[in-house]
Amino acid sequence: GKFRLPGKKALQASDTVFEVVLVDVSEQPIERPKKAKNGIIVAKKKRHTQKAQVIADRKSAQIVATAFSYGSKHDFQLFKDDGCEFAEHLRILADAGYQGLAELHENSQTPFKKSKYHALTKREKQSNRVLARKRIVIEHIFRKLKVFRILSEKYRNRRKRFALRFNLIAAIYNLELTSN
Fold it and tell me: Most exposed of 34, 104, 129, 147 (fewest Cβ within 10 Å)?
């Protein structure tokens, strides 16, 4: 029972132990897919990739849930398609790829983005720095997951089993976290 992820249902419960969760995506290159019957090959910037979204608890740095997609899907679209429900009191911290998250969950925070015509104010820059300091935990989680070479280099195995392998490595990471 210790060797599994808490899952999406742990985020829905009103009595959840999580207060602040972090959301981010890691992208990993894959080998060029064989041509499908319909002749469509998904490619982004001449690199074939796949994405793994991680939802983690900020306090314990424990991975709660994961989601997977092909590389050309946008981070926020992957988040919406995953259909993860969050308790109202839960605070979500995300990066700039999740603009519009406030419409789905009121208690969420993303960094301010400058526009073509308006630079960021000092207060917005300071707010972005504070958010980045809080979000660094998820970047450290990805660093620890990528110690496993299967996640850090080009993925050469069956893409159908990528989710299984990623979840197993995430469970190993959580188990190591609780044992320390």
Answer: 34
